[in-house]
Amino acid sequence: MNAEKPGNDYFRTLFNAIPSPVVIVDQDVRVEDANVAGFALLGRKEAVYRRRGGDILNCIHALESPEGCGHDADCADCIIRNSVVKAASGSKVTRMRTRMELKGESGTTNVYLLVTATPFSLEGRSLVLLQLEDINELVALKSLLPICAWCRKIRDDDQYWQTVESYLKKHADIDFSHAICEECLAKMLEKPA
Predict the structure, then answer these.
(1) Which of 22, 57, 116, 161 lies at a CB distance of 3.0 to 4.6 Å from 153, suitable for a disulfide?
(2) What letter would DSSP give residue 118?
(3) What are the pLDDT digits (tens) for 55-83?
């Protein structure tokens, strides 16, 4: 590269080389631009320009409100929207995990993402660089639990075997109360004392 200042083509080439979808949005999550991976996710530039992300992706919450993305009661908890708002106020958000429920032709699907939102200013406008990392495969792999076929203990990431109750308490903050189902009660009552 020469000592001259790089041109727009240089930066557009770098932007498009990023393999994750990167979208430039305003503080209301309206699409201004995207890289190649971003447009592959969202659709043609002409079809998505100045539309809100949830409307484009068919987020179920955007579909529940006549005004669309950002106007349903559940939108207040949206990690993507909140990350963009935080970035628009000058703070960077890095790799926040979220799950989006999207409506498709075959019903509702869950999409797991890591969201990074970085503020920047261009030509006097405050914009946000929004990166969306697909972690669906990681979530699916992590959801596979090695369980002993005999005692039903679960092996954790440290190769330590623990009861189902201990594992779920540690990883999902779930407490258990014990009871006995009708089938097991009937079997127990059949056995001689």
Answers:
(1) 161
(2) E
(3) 999 999 999 999 999 999 999 999 999 99
